[in-house]
Amino acid sequence: MTSYVTQLNNYFQGKKASHTLSWSESSTGASHEIKWTVQCKVSGEVKGTGVADTKAAAKEEAARQALVAYGF
């Protein structure tokens, strides 16, 4: 199964607009219980936000929300 991040990247590459896609990430909590927050932005506008125990999981959730915002 293709990841949401890959699907989102492929979508924007197909539109020749991959330069508009960006990510911001931050973490909170003690080192043994970090929570990651990742935002998916398109042209600077937040299209999805994921919060999870791992950065990868938070990024996947942010990408999933962005895909939903684009009708997928």
Do you know the CATH topology?
A: Double Stranded RNA Binding Domain
What is the 3D shape?
elongated
CATH architecture level-2 label? 2-Layer Sandwich
Strand order of the largest sheet: 1-2-3
Helix residue percentage:
25-40%
Runs in which pLDDT lies below 50 for 5 or more consecutive residues are none
Q: How much is the average pLDDT? A: 96
CATH C-level class is Alpha Beta
Structural class label: alpha+beta
- Count the domains: 1
Q: How many E-type strands?
A: 3
Largest sheet: 3 strands, antiparallel
**Rg over alpha carbons:** 12 Å
Range of strand content: 25-35%
Distance linking N and C termini: 15 Å
Strand and helix order: HEEEH
**Continuous helix count:** 2
Report a brief summary of the structure.
The protein has 72 residues and is of the alpha+beta class. It is built from two helices and three strands.
